[in-house]
Design a protein that fits this description.
single chain, 393 residues, mainly alpha, MetI-like fold, 2 domains, extended
Length: 393
Amino acid sequence: MLGSLLQVLYFVALGTLSVAVLEGYLYLHFRFWDKRWLLPIGLLAAVAAGCSAAALVPLGRASLIVSAIATEACLCFVIQYLLRGRFTLPYLLLAPAVIGLLLLIVYPLAFEVSLAFHDLKLNTVMHWSRTGELPFVGVKQFARVFTTSPLSEVTFWQLLLRTLWWTVINVVLHVTGGFALALLLNEVKILRGVYRTLLVIPWAMPQVVAVLALRGEFQAEFGAFNIMLSRLDRWLPWVAKLGIGPVQWLGRHPFLTCTLINVWLGIPFMMVVILGGLQSISRNYYDAAAIDGASAFQQFRMITLPLIKPVLVPAVTLGAVWTFNNINVIYLVTGQAGGSEGADILVSALYKSAFTYYRYSYSAAFAIVIFAILFIVSMAWLKFSKSTESVYG
């Protein structure tokens, strides 16, 4: 316990020191921006920093020195000729966040793109770790994504179709179930907060806990669903004659099991979002429609749906993206050590390709392809739904 606490304190102190050095470095540039000696002194410091970093980072000394010199030259140019020493405080406050984003988002993304054009796998990773060199293969990894299966039993195209089906059926059921519950809660006047709290629990609790708890209910012998089916067969013998009985959920129907669990987890979010939109619609519209003789369905179609669209379309878009990339349910339900491939979608196949089969460059190209697919589908949906019409139209 003490060792873990000391490690946390060490990283906190290291982060604080790094921020202090960064702030001091930038402050000196803003403070002496009009001095002619700023650029030469800065370049010498950049060379020294590049040489020091070469001993810690497994990259070439020359590349680090060149990067440090280029960074220092760009910084001096921006401060001396563009900013001319102005806006010191705003840039000092923004700098740590910008550096953090560069290190945590931009650099990993750039490294992934670079990795996709090389060949890093289990038998080349040791050579790369010692020398920092990898064989360049061009677009070969991207071609292999479409021609080579990331798993042992299913192809990329089967995974793509399954992922699209997984996304569509989950989002449709999320929206349908969430809309139904939101309409019911919108009419409730007593204990609405209690009902809403109870219904949102599956989504509010940690997803790992929720998934594993419901996974246990699908066990073949002791799961709640099979126990209920067994008792139903005893009480109603004619149901058993129809073939309805206990099911090997995890063994024979892993995809159906994952879908049921994910639907249970996703409906509360849609319910909360849609309920908020419904409560923002004035009752005057419904009162005027009722006076004109509009039925409940006509009020729903002509009033509720158009006015809920600005809330519903972004929620559906987010739900589709989350569902498309939802590896948690697949991973936790079908097994953490490889598991069944009967429920795998693109992102779970990507995970297994990287951390079960150790095909790192292939997985990097695979991830870029998945991102491109998701981006195209999202843009097409936004265009089709005209979600930005009220903003730009």
